[in-house]
Give the backbone structure.
Amino acid sequence: MIYIPKGTKDVLPQDAYKWQYVEGMARDVAKLFNLKEIRTPTFEHTELFQRGVGDTTDIVTKEMYTFKDKGDRSITLKPEGTAGAVRAFIENGLAGGVLPAKMYYITPAFRYERPQAGRLREFHQFGVEIFGAASAQTDAEAILMADTLLKKLGLNVALKLNSIGCKTCRAAYNKALKEFFAPHLEGLCHDCKTRYEKNPLRLLDCKEEGCKKINADAPTILEYLCDDCAAHFEEVKTCLDLSGIAYEIDSRIVRGLDYYTRTVFEFVSTSIGAQGTVCAGGRYDGLIEELGGKAMPAVGFAAGIERLLIVMEQTGVEIPDEAKPVVYLAGMDKDCRQKAFEIATTLRKAGIFAEIDHMERSIKAQFKYADKIGAQYVAVIGGNELAEGKANVKCMATGESESVAFAEMLAYFQSK
Ligand code: ATP
Ligand code: MG
């Protein structure tokens, strides 16, 4: 027996409808906001993520699935969706087309992490990107889109909002952070010592308890925002206020990816413990240029589908059941089953959900099976029925039966 790799999950046939429900909602919301889908490869050149996600991030330093292909190229399974979307946007000349370019994707993502509830090595994201727009309304729209989806899914999660400014404000802030952390260096974890040197902002994102304690008193970025970034942030907040979206300013939120600028946000649920962030995003005005395109602003977010499903389950959100067969056609012997097959074919051609026996079971066992799969009607064809050219149709809810001629079956079930 060969088992599933650690950190991956099967979605079984009896559960797939839950995924389809969430994905369907995500697509509906995307359409509502004028987004079109983009599909990019599952793997890219490693360099794309090194540059796009950032050399100092956890993702690039320790979480990527990187390997050499047979042509000796360094390939990486996508750990997130944005870098690939930006590459495709540039490579296909969309940056010179109609702007803003609004797109979404539903994609698997791969990160070599320690698996736990809501943290997998292969997981799935619904992601949104808006390229070319710098306005605060666009940031607010991205947040509103995520909020709309979460509410449609019946989730009530808290929105945490922050601005991490631009290069200008961050230079001053990084300096202040370094001054603050200098006397505490000994108490920081190994990773944070590196972060201190390379990207002090990253220190605020550390999940180690010791570091978190020290972080608590660190200066906040909001005090260091330049006038433009501060005004942009105010406008984002005004838009959210106008939309009636509640938020909490949380200056600890810096996001795990290097490319963010200005607005950053997370939707956090309290019901999956440490893995509570179901959706996260923000503005990344430097990324398109960093990846070889022309300088262009961008904003987006990604929601983890597994985490959405976990929170939905924990909070008892009901997902509508899948459609059940309208009719199960039971046949007593070989000839009767042949007739059942023929009628099922006619019904299916007309778009009616019909099922037949595949196991050569007795009529009694077929009834049992029909009940298990939730068929609304069972049409029995025995020797007598076959001879008379009609089936005995039983309504499973009421237990009532009636005789229906084979030639009438289609009309009969079309009216149900
Ligand atoms: P975390 O802080 O939980 O590690 P992150 O900052 O690494 O999250 P992002 O890169 O912003 O997460 O990814 C967007 C979303 O994808 C997250 O908010 C989360 O819902 C989901 N996600 C990220 N990593 C995983 C994972 N390993 N397993 C399942 N879902 C994940
Ligand atoms: Mg992570």
